[in-house]
């Protein structure tokens, strides 16, 4: 039934199943990369929103073509809907023809909209994997890291999810790509002499 959340799913059971899913997710990823196989998760996201407890939007990524007016309207509606929910309520709910899956980490809510047939627990694991990547990069990530380094948060997300689909399940590979990009940026920002510019040193 539309608008009805999955309140019959006990929170403890949800956490247990998500933990098992995380182990399977990691094991499949490691085996695939060990054999040189690119491991993509069959998963389609419509958009992701990161917002604070006060409803301040900190990051937004859209994988469907929408006007700015539509994006603002959807963001406002989803944020208000999620913030109105009680802490012990399930993290899944149906909205329009999509599923909204969210998880709160400290002062930030990570919220995804996926197609109706998508698996909610896979979506939770995608959110958790993104948080792990942020945590590894920033070192105990907090809201201020997202505010002052939003371009890095977007870059990490783009390395992990492309076109709404999970492209890289290995945290190690994602972080390696980010480190390489940081090195290139540092080299580009380092001032060079005239001789270095023309390749004589």
UniProtKB/TrEMBL annotation:
It is found in: Cytoplasmic vesicle membrane; Golgi apparatus; Membrane, Clathrin-coated pit. Keywords: Coated pit, Cytoplasmic vesicle, Golgi apparatus, Membrane, Protein transport, Transport. It comes from the Eukaryota. The keyword Membrane applies. One of its GO terms (cellular component) is AP-1 adaptor complex. Subunit of clathrin-associated adaptor protein complex 1 that plays a role in protein sorting in the late-Golgi/trans-Golgi network (TGN) and/or endosomes. The AP complexes mediate both the recruitment of clathrin to membranes and the recognition of sorting signals within the cytosolic tails of transmembrane cargo molecules. This is AP-1 complex subunit sigma-2.
């Amino acid at each position: 039934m539309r608008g009805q959340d999955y309140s019959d799913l006990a929170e403890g059971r949800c956490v247990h199943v998500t933990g098992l899913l995380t182990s399977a997710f990691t094991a499949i990823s490691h085996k695939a990369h060990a054999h040189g196989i690119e491991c993509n998760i069959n998963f389609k996201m419509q958009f992701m929103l990161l917002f604070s407890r006060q409803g301040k939007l900190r990051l937004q990524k859209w994988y469907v073509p929408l006007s700015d007016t539509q994006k603002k309207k959807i963001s406002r509606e989803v944020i208000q809907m999620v913030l109105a929910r009680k802490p012990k309520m399930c993290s899944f709910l149906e909205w329009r023809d999509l599923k909204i899956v969210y998880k709160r980490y400290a002062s930030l809510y990570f919220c995804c909209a996926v197609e109706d047939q998508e698996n909610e627990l896979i979506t939770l694991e995608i959110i958790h994997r993104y948080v792990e990547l942020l945590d590894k990069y920033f070192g105990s990530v907090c809201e201020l890291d997202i505010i002052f380094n939003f371009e890095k948060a977007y870059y990490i997300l783009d390395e992990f999810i492309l076109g709404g689909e999970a492209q890289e399940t290995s945290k190690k590979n994602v972080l390696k790509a980010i480190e390489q990009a940081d090195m290139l940026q540092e080299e580009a920002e380092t001032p060079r002499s005239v001789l270095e510019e023309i390749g004589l040193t």
